[in-house]
Amino acid sequence: MTKARFDELIHPSTRLSLVATLAAADWAEFAFLKDRLGMSDSALSKQLATLEEAGYVATERRLSGSRRKVRARLTLTGRDAFNGHVAALREIVADAASPAEGPATRS
After folding, report:
1. How many of the other CB atoms lie within 10 Å of CB of 76?
2. Residues 54-77: what's their mean pLDDT?
3. Which pTM was predicted?
4. Helices 30-37 and 41-53 sit at what angle, rounded to 10 degrees?
5. 11-35 in b/e burial notation, b at 16+ Cβ within 10 A?
């Protein structure tokens, strides 16, 4: 079972959406990520670089004909961080959804 760990690096909505998308795929093409997440080239590149620097994402640059293509994948470290973050979010939501113990503080 994954240990719940809130991850400040993954938590911002843009990175969380990016990591969640990568968690569902083996590799994802840059163009697919850009379209799926509605991000500009520069914004996506910046987020991928931040996650790659942390060891959460690996990127591969290759030539396809005369075009350079980039694809990305979640590393094992990134997948572990994502799973821990999701588990922490589930705990937060579960705690908020459970009835409060003790007398109500407001009427």
Report:
1. 10
2. 93
3. 0.84
4. 110
5. eeeebbbbbebbeeeeebebeebee
